[in-house]
Amino acid sequence: MAMKLWNKLKNKNKNIDWFSLVSISITLLVILFIGSAVLAIVLGGFPNFRQTIQSQEVLFALRLSLITSTLSTVLVMIFALPTAYTLTRTQMPCKRICELLIELTLSLPYLLLGLSLLILFSSPPGKWLKSMGFQVVFAPAGIVMAHLLVNLPYAIRMIKTAFSDSDERLEYIARTLGASRFRSFATVLLPLCRTNLISTFILTWARAMGEFGGTLMLVGITRMKTETLPGSIYLSISTGNPQTAMSTAMLMLIISGAAMALSHLTEQMNKHRERKAA
Question: Is the pTM above the cut of 0.70?
Fold first, then answer.
């Protein structure tokens, strides 16, 4: 198959060089590796897929994952938008240090981030919050907090890149015409970055659906209480039920694929609008 593809490409381009050959070979190897992993999930999960998605436990994990991922993603966007604006459009003191601190968490294991939250909410202030009715440790609210800590730096970085690449002169023109900073932000900057913001929301949501390490450390995995889809897979493997685990993994694969397709569709629609406007 690889040789047929190579001969086809060679016939199309007589001047193809050795570097292109190496690049194509490595690409085919990567596709084979990733495709094999995806195929393994599909083949392992398909036989019991219908039975698995009808079980009360998996349906509970799906509902909890959808609710917590959506809520945490909304919170992430609420915090990430003004933070990214501050880092790209203001002269806040020690801005570079703040950027480094935010980006530091991108390289930390999610398990470690969950441990930091566990320490934080087990401290006296955390116990005070619990006494006020805001329980995080070993509670569903902790799932949202874990998602928030894990995904907030990621979303900030993506939105900051989008803001940096936008034309700041348009905002300046809007302000010279009497618009406030907030109005230029809402009516100029956000529309300019609309596609990037939608993609950030979708990708952040998909990451929240698959988050496991931080959640495991902060809330544990209790059946029918703090059991998300990744947690359900972990419990199924731990109890010697790989068939259910693979079927649940296939469900997550379908959800992730749908999210990626929606993100791609949004980008294509935006490109179509830009070509039409031009």
Answer: yes
